[in-house]
Amino acid sequence: MTTQRILDFLATRRPNGPCLVVDLEVVQDNYHAFEKALPQSRIFYAVKANPAPEILRLLAGLGSSFDTASVAEIEMALEAGATPDRISYGNTIKKERDIARAHEFGIRLFAVDCVEEVEKIARAAPGAQVFCRVLTDGEGAEWPLSRKFGCVPAMAVDVLRRAAALGLDAYGVSFHVGSQQTDLAAWDRALTDAKSVFAALAAEGIVLRMVNMGGGFPTRYLSDVPTAQAYGEAIFEALSKHFGNRIPETIIEPGRGMVGNAGVIKSEVVLISKKADNDNLRWVYLDIGKFGGLAETMDEAIRYPIVTPRDGDAVEPCVLAGPTCDSADVMYEKNPYPLPLSLTIGDEVLIEGTGAYTTTYSAIAFNGFEPLRSYVI
């Protein structure tokens, strides 16, 4: 997971404090793997996963499109070289003035999940294309998504019917099967709902043309995950099952799967202690924690691989925690993390698979700790 290029960078630059290092060669390889796995689908990189300008410029040059969640992310994608027709405003919760600003930039593709959002778009971006997000259960995902986004299929029919009535282009349906989704059948279940929306509206003369199959494509942490090719084959089989030889346009929105395995965080052991003389459980404190970029350890959902200079020595489980004065800043306690007994204060460790959802989750100076620094090589 840690490439030689990253090791060489850390050895020569010796950056002080915790930092993320992302290898662009891995990002490029991941992009080509998605292209090969789903050649008929347009790739919209989820900017929120890691918006580093170097990553966006690389992907724009490779031909990627971009899934954005705000006007700021739209501006980032445009600055990286993407044209407006390669940008989707994929957040279903938007201020009307932000919709108008996106429309001024030339953005024409918007996500919705309720009639109220459709009405805002009709006022601020007349004639735009809209796709309605359908709720999914997220079963099989290590980082499931809540009911915050999406609506039931029956409501999606109402939403898109209203969009057409207001002069918008009722373009299609979207779903997200949950982040770090390892169940290949998850897309089949979601496509069942998407097809039902297509069929209901077709009966009314409203012909949808696109399915946005979202993200969910995983990166490898402590366990192996299926390859991009395996996902591609399962998804194509599900599309054929539900749509026959009339498969609509499709979009995928990889974020974690595009950049997760390209990044490594360098961290330092600040303290190793126990809570009582007869306590066998060590507490290992790093100089990075939930507020420094490892927010996805919440509920111990994502368990990152950790490489130490003492690997090969005897290990015992320990509680792993961050450096801040907040009791929530504990990464792994319910399921303690096995680390070498010989690990000592001052040792540097590498937290792998951290290219996605780390810098963007890093707090701004909580407890005076600076945001997670990032290097892209």
From TrEMBL:
<protein>
    <recommendedName>
        <fullName>ornithine decarboxylase</fullName>
        <ecNumber>4.1.1.17</ecNumber>
    </recommendedName>
</protein>
<comment type="similarity">
    <text>Belongs to the Orn/Lys/Arg decarboxylase class-II family.</text>
</comment>
<dbReference type="InterPro" id="IPR022657">
    <property type="entry name" value="De-COase2_CS"/>
</dbReference>
<dbReference type="InterPro" id="IPR022644">
    <property type="entry name" value="De-COase2_N"/>
</dbReference>
<dbReference type="InterPro" id="IPR022653">
    <property type="entry name" value="De-COase2_pyr-phos_BS"/>
</dbReference>
<keyword id="KW-0456">Lyase</keyword>
<keyword id="KW-0663">Pyridoxal phosphate</keyword>
<dbReference type="Pfam" id="PF02784">
    <property type="entry name" value="Orn_Arg_deC_N"/>
</dbReference>
<dbReference type="InterPro" id="IPR000183">
    <property type="entry name" value="Orn/DAP/Arg_de-COase"/>
</dbReference>
<comment type="pathway">
    <text>Amine and polyamine biosynthesis; putrescine biosynthesis via L-ornithine pathway; putrescine from L-ornithine: step 1/1.</text>
</comment>
<dbReference type="InterPro" id="IPR009006">
    <property type="entry name" value="Ala_racemase/Decarboxylase_C"/>
</dbReference>
<dbReference type="GO" id="GO:0016829">
    <property type="term" value="F:lyase activity"/>
</dbReference>
<dbReference type="InterPro" id="IPR029066">
    <property type="entry name" value="PLP-binding_barrel"/>
</dbReference>
<feature type="domain" description="Orn/DAP/Arg decarboxylase 2 N-terminal">
    <location>
        <begin position="27"/>
        <end position="259"/>
    </location>
</feature>
<dbReference type="InterPro" id="IPR002433">
    <property type="entry name" value="Orn_de-COase"/>
</dbReference>
